[in-house]
Amino acid sequence: MNKNLERLYNGLWKENPTFVLMLGMCPTLAVTTSAINGIGMGLSTTVVLVLSNMMISALRNLIPDRVRMPAFIVVVASFVTIVQFLMQGFLPALYTSLGIYIPLIVVNCIILGRAESYASKNPVIPSMFDGIGMGLGFTVGLTLIGIVREILGNGSIFDITITPLNNFHITLFGLAPGAFIVLGFLVAIMNVIRRKMEKAGKPLPKAQGCLAGDCTGCTLSSACTGKSYVHQEDGKEER
Amino acid sequence: MSYVTGLILLLVASAIVNNVVLSQFLGLCPFLGVSKRVETAAGMGGAVIFVITIASFVTSIIYKFILAPTGFEYMQTIVFILVIAALVQFVEMFLKKSVPSLYQSLGVYLPLITTNCAVLGTAINNVTNNYDILESVINGFGVAVGFTIAIVIMAGIREKIEYNDIPQTFKGSAIVLITAGLMAMAFLGFSGVI
């Protein structure tokens, strides 16, 4: 398969950041109260991810290895600021409903994770497709979770009320507890799929990030001195 | 309402009513990662209180005296994240040199906090809500206390969960998330307090 197409497939399906890698859980929980919010957050993250992947990949031979983390953070933060102002100007309603989670894209582990593990080692064009794939994968994940929560919590999809469903809606799923519970069930479903795939001899890529209790997805993993401590504690119990 | 009453209400609101983890979803990583034992959870909580309070103070000073007068408000995200990252490093070095006993108990957690979205989120919230410097510090302290309450309760529950008979599928983070959901439901009860 063409390398660029392979990157798209990788992000959308094989290493889907939401379902398989389980990265970026803060925004996943926070903004998926409705499908529209999920799409908005996903697409703004995609824009930042694509631009920052391209920029970091273009600068990869100029950035000294020792200061790469601060350099990446500055690049990502600049693009986040640009996207933030564009949204404020052109999509004020979405900007208000996403609120503080827009500037917090800076600390989304998907973005710095891709910068560290892919863009800083590969040429610009594949990095761009990697960003598109990962970003769209994240968008799809957020939208699906948003659809589930919107149906359960509000009886509607994309703000269109569905007549029999809206009589049975459970408001809780639109609120904070619903986010945790939906994500808990998602993780459980992924556990089942993971086990099935492993039996079939096609194991899924390992989950990263905080849900896995694993530091590989974390932005500052390479510089962090605390991770040995977390891992040491991790080893004591079965996952 | 006097200024002091306002501050007390702000403290209660940011610690309990709008709990940073259970209703704002900030700082989930340490909440899920370092909540296996009450002792470590309390240590993490202490470190977070320390860092968020100082970071709120420093970022609001920088915003008020550097960014706002020069018209560089739009640089806040970049400036804040760099300031927080540097600040955590400085706090770590300072504690190591001057207060070794505190460093012993908090040191290992400090690097984990640098990219914690709760720190950046609180700094940005302080600016968005137009808090003055004292209000920012109180808000930061309240947020961090709320985080500590949540993570310590969670660690207590997880210590018990370890001995429970959980379906294989829900072992690990699934049951932790559902527990967090139930805790969030309990915290929803505070929403009428203020």
Characterise the protein shown here:
The complex is a heterodimer of chains A (239) and B (194). Chain A has 239 residues and is an all-alpha fold. Chain A has a two-stranded antiparallel sheet. In chain A, a hairpin with a 2-residue loop joins strand 1 (156-157) and strand 2 (160-161). The longest helix of chain A has 31 residues, at 124-154. In chain A, 62% of the residues lie in helices and 2% in strands. Chain A has one domain. Chain B has nine helices and no strands. The longest helix of chain B has 33 residues, at 38-70. The chains are: A mainly alpha (239), B mainly alpha (194). Chains A and B meet through helix 2, helix 4, helix 8 and helix 9 of A and helix 2, helix 4, helix 6, helix 7 and helix 9 of B.
Q: Biggest sheet of chain A, open or closed, and with what strands and sense?
A: 2 strands, antiparallel
Number of domains of chain A: 1
SSE-based structural type of chain B:
mainly alpha
The biggest sheet of chain B amounts to: none
Number of helices of chain B: 9
Oligomerization state:
heterodimer
Helix content of chain A: 55-70%
* Terminal-residue CA separation of chain A: 35 Å
The low-confidence parts of chain B are: none
What's the layout of helices and strands?
The complex is a heterodimer of chains A (239) and B (194).
Chain A (H helix, E strand, L loop, with lengths): L2 H12 L10 H7 L3 H24 L9 H23 L1 H7 L10 H11 L4 H31 L1 E2 L2 E2 L14 H24 L27 H9 L4
Antiparallel strand pairs in A: 1-2
Chain B lengths: L2 H15 L10 H6 L4 H33 L5 H23 L1 H7 L3 H4 L3 H12 L4 H29 L11 H16 L6
Helix pairs in contact in B: 1-8, 3-4, 3-7, 3-8, 4-5, 4-7, 7-8, 8-9
